[in-house]
Amino acid sequence: MRIGVPKEIKNHEYRVGLTPASVRELTHHGHEVVVETDAAAAIGLPDEAYTQAGARIADSAQAVFAEAEMIVKVKEPQPAECRMLKPGQVLFTYLHLAPDPEQTRLLQESGAIAIAYETVTDRRGGLPLLAPMSEVAGRMAIQAGAHCLERAQGGRGVLLGGVPGVPAAKVVILGGGVVGTNAARMAMGLEAHVTVIDKNLDRLKELDMQFGPMLNTIYATVDAIEENVLAADLVVGAVLVPGDSAPRLVSREMVANMQRGAVAVDVAIDQGGCFETSKPTTHAEPTYLVDEVVHYCVANMPGGVARTSTLALNNATLPFTLALAGKGWKQALADDANLRNGLNVLDGRITCEGVAKAQGLAYTPAEQALGL
Ligand SMILES: NC(=O)C1=CN([C@@H]2O[C@H](COP(=O)(O)OP(=O)(O)OC[C@H]3O[C@@H](n4cnc5c(N)ncnc54)[C@H](O)[C@@H]3O)[C@@H](O)[C@H]2O)C=CC1
Ligand SMILES: CC(=O)C(=O)O
Ligand SMILES: [Mg+2]
């Protein structure tokens, strides 16, 4: 198969769909790879590393989209990229369609086969292609939150760990999945007072076993969320209902009653965010204030540490990329129910239930769309 890797064009997005090591694996298996020039030069992966791995370098995104049978990317295609997609072309990347009607429509119109990293599953019900970026974003959430808490950033001038004689900051994490666990681990490492709130009791039990008495775990009720958010210095939004829009757990009124200079890091912003006051921001302008609460809502946080993130993402995506390239998309999707859960759009039909529900569109089960 001929696989194309365009340079990412989202604001301050320096990740890339394939590393040279992944390219070598694909060319070793007899596939052709074409990479846009300077696709990953910013993270120390120059064109020569790709040519040594067996790729060809193309001088534009247009050239990559024109000749590839499958496009492997990182972020959701921007409108200009959607318009370059062709009927029958496979797109393998993050999509986050639930809160994005424009992209959904453009993908439907393109006739491409759109497979979203974030809805591919594993045998244990996890999300193996979201997990590495959630690990990164969860860890970054505490770095970003600590920075935003500095007074010069609009924060309340609080140090996460406090010092002897002065209490530690209160960090409240909504959602104890991959983002939440990694955020908790970093915040505990900095000696903050950390609370995780989740509606999944089994998950809370696992966290309790993992971290012991240093971590407070609380079952998610409106009451518990309100009480903890209002007392928090830093709130991390880390909930997810796969495929669907994020549940809005923190209302505008709750934000208005938060402490002045408190910080909200809404990692769940890529699925619409879990604060009513959240709107997507960029690495160039990551924060804004609502009622003197600092909001950090960067939708591509891992792009900030693009080298680490690219390597971590490729570790997870490579087996699926190899399967799609080796078997062809139809067979690969037919053989693997977990990969099939990644299929979001086929022949203009929406095959992810969460996306269809979030946008009030008709849902076609992937099996039906594939004629299985
Ligand atoms: N902004 C960014 O750059 C990035 C954003 N993300 C996003 O972060 C979010 C979280 O991802 P993961 O941790 O991987 O998901 P996950 O599935 O591992 O964890 C989500 C947790 O939320 C809990 N949850 C769901 N609904 C809830 C509710 N109503 N109340 C309380 N808890 C609830 C679930 O029980 C689960 O434990 C996702 O939206 C993901 O796309 C991930 C990586 C990067
Ligand atoms: C998952 C996601 O949104 C990201 O890695 O940018
Ligand atoms: Mg306020």
TrEMBL record:
Keywords: NAD, Nucleotide-binding, Oxidoreductase. It catalyses: L-alanine + NAD(+) + H2O = pyruvate + NH4(+) + NADH + H(+). InterPro entries: Ala_DH, AlaDH/PNT_N, AlaDH/PNT_NAD(H)-bd, NAD(P)-bd_dom_sf. Its EC number is 1.4.1.1. It holds the Pfam family AlaDh_PNT_N. Substrate binds at residues 15, 75. Signal peptide: none annotated. Residues 149-297 form the Alanine dehydrogenase/pyridine nucleotide transhydrogenase NAD(H)-binding domain. NAD(+) binds at residues 134, 198, 203, 239-240, 267-270, 298-301. One of its GO terms (cellular component) is plasma membrane. Residues 4-137 form the Alanine dehydrogenase/pyridine nucleotide transhydrogenase N-terminal domain. One of its GO terms (biological process) is L-alanine catabolic process. The active site is at 96 (proton donor/acceptor), 270 (proton donor/acceptor). Coiled coil: none annotated. The keyword Lyase does not apply. SUPFAM superfamilies: Formate/glycerate dehydrogenase catalytic domain-like, NAD(P)-binding Rossmann-fold domains. It comes from the Bacteria. One of its GO terms (molecular function) is nucleotide binding. Gene3D superfamilies: NAD(P)-binding Rossmann-like Domain. The keyword Oxidoreductase applies. NCBIfam families: alaDH. Belongs to the AlaDH/PNT family. This is Alanine dehydrogenase. It comes from Roseospirillum parvum.
